[in-house]
Amino acid sequence: MNELAPCPQCKSTFTYELDNLLACPECGHEWNPAEENKAEAFVVKDSNGNILQNGDSVVVIKNLPVRGSSQSIKAGTKVRNIRLVDSDHNIDCKIDGFGAMALKSEFVKKA
Question: Scanning 5, 7, 41, 83, which has its CA 20 to 30 A from the CA of 60?
Answer without folding.
Answer: 41
